Amino acid sequence: MHVDVLLTKTISKDYCVYIDQLESLAFDTKVLIVTNTTVADLHLANLQTKIHAKELHSVILPDGEKYKNFESLELILNACFEHRLDRKSLLIAFGGGVIGDMTGFAASLYQRGIDFIQIPTTLLAQVDASVGGKTGINNTYGKNLIGSFWQPRAVYCESAFLKTLPKREFSAGIAEIIKMAVTFDRGFFEWLETHDLHDETHLKEAIYKSISIKATVVAQDETEQGIRAVLNYGHTFGHVIENQTHYTTYLHGEAVAIGMVMANCLAQKLGLLSQEDAGRIMALLKRYDLPTHYAIHSPEVFYDAFFLDKKSEYSKIKFILAKGIGAHEIRNDIPKEIVLEALKEANA
Amino acid sequence: MHVDVLLTKTISKDYCVYIDQLESLAFDTKVLIVTNTTVADLHLANLQTKIHAKELHSVILPDGEKYKNFESLELILNACFEHRLDRKSLLIAFGGGVIGDMTGFAASLYQRGIDFIQIPTTLLAQVDASVGGKTGINNTYGKNLIGSFWQPRAVYCESAFLKTLPKREFSAGIAEIIKMAVTFDRGFFEWLETHDLHDETHLKEAIYKSISIKATVVAQDETEQGIRAVLNYGHTFGHVIENQTHYTTYLHGEAVAIGMVMANCLAQKLGLLSQEDAGRIMALLKRYDLPTHYAIHSPEVFYDAFFLDKKSEYSKIKFILAKGIGAHEIRNDIPKEIVLEALKEANA
């Protein structure tokens, strides 16, 4: 005897990423803006003039990856309770990737899920983190190991917010743009080689192109059963670097830049990437002053740390590798010895 | 300029509720059984002989609604990390509604979501809580205010586990069966009036019927935008009773039984339910020794407590009322005075 539970509805809804189209937004519900101290000082008053709501509240969190934890999540949720948000209320994530991931996570949990909007203020969040609905927090076991898939109702990328971005953060965002180009679009990579993203028009073009790539990938594979994993190019190595340096030495995008170089060493060993192409990728990263080298103390310890990354099943690490420039290969069959050799070469 | 993010995939998958069909289950992944001290003592060894997995682990939580909190959730998640569960691993919820809701919640969060199976051991969990994918925990603001919609991969209801169920818990489950009948199926209600559920065959029939009703409702409205709210008949009142008595005096099903009687008082005042039908519902509840009266100290205080329930938007409480026996009406336009009068009458 059994009963079928037939679910016809999808929880996720399609949405738009708007670029430089945020003039004013009106909602007939309560709205809670979630931001951090840095962004609040620079831009919160400005944003508040643009948002019209039944009630407009805000909660300001401390700034930094180390606050991407359960305590900050609880601050957001408590603000929801204190302001008695209901199921039709809306959260707005106003900040970088950390704010976006935590706000989306809180939105997915409050009363089993309410809507949220992303208004990313860093380049990295605009081109990558704000699109695709990955939410989460870090814990002692690693990064983003607890979270959900919860898509925003809309994303508003405003280039105005990028003007106050520190140079290092700007470059960290460029790393993710380069990531998209290397793994998915050779033409875009070549365009990046010949266009300076410090130019505002070029930057906007690159943001649009990166988001388009990401949206196409996410549309194919929302919950990362397959191709979406390619977006983790550089991240498998990068996460270990971030973890070993306690998230204090490198920005996420910087660790990813080094991670791409390490992944390229491995791709070269496997004959997937030529020395020339690896050199072109390295040159593009360096042009934006991104770090490309990390001193690995022990390749063995570094290797073991892969297994704490959630993308890895135990004893099977999934490597995302560039297959020339503009294509990719997912490999989970690479012998430990070859990975160790690649790590040693990257270290040289 | 904008980019469309088109999501074609649904996260929720259809699944089966099996009744008395659990012989043995084999998985080529890691499996973590989540249970509580009471169920573990009675049935865990038995269940372990039926589950074959790459690795079989278990985590045993303290028993009781008061442990449906973040600390217990963390115990489950930490067990997932300690046993290095990966994205293909499986959780098994083995217990009543509390274990089911928390295990489902943990499954939805671990690595942004892994599969879980429900093996409910209480009548209430079998007929109601284990089906439909509502997960969550309680906090100081109220019940199930933080959670997710996360559907199990399958549900196995075994009547063998009900044999060790205390009499009060058995009756609490009957309350939810009566709830389904009153709001959705007059024929089923009449059948309940003429069949004693202490008889094993009748009980199994009632379980099947209740799950079928629930599955039909959930299939129409997974995330409770409409008709699924009808399953909260008796719950709006019941949650206040549970909250005022600190979840210690009444089992959930008992509070729902009293809540149905209160809702019926209101339905009578509005001319939706006859005195005779209200009497039949009352008689059926009493037949299973369910409580039908709660001493309301202050109707005003009781009324205000509705607004802490997440189903209520501020200043608009949604009441689920029986419309005769076998049908329902959702109302959010009832003046406060009428509700207060109904509360006073229920108190008389």
UniProtKB/TrEMBL annotation, chains A, B:
Keywords: Amino-acid biosynthesis, Aromatic amino acid biosynthesis, Cobalt, Cytoplasm, Lyase, Metal-binding, NAD, Nucleotide-binding, Zinc. Pathway: Metabolic intermediate biosynthesis; chorismate biosynthesis; chorismate from D-erythrose 4-phosphate and phosphoenolpyruvate: step 2/7. GO terms for biological process: amino acid biosynthetic process; aromatic amino acid family biosynthetic process; chorismate biosynthetic process. It is an enzyme of class 4 (lyase). It is found in: Cytoplasm. The keyword Zinc applies. Its cofactor is NAD(+); Zn(2+); Co(2+). NAD(+) binds at residues 63-68, 97-101, 121-122, 134, 143, 161-164. Residues 173-312 form the 3-dehydroquinate synthase C-terminal domain. This is 3-dehydroquinate synthase.
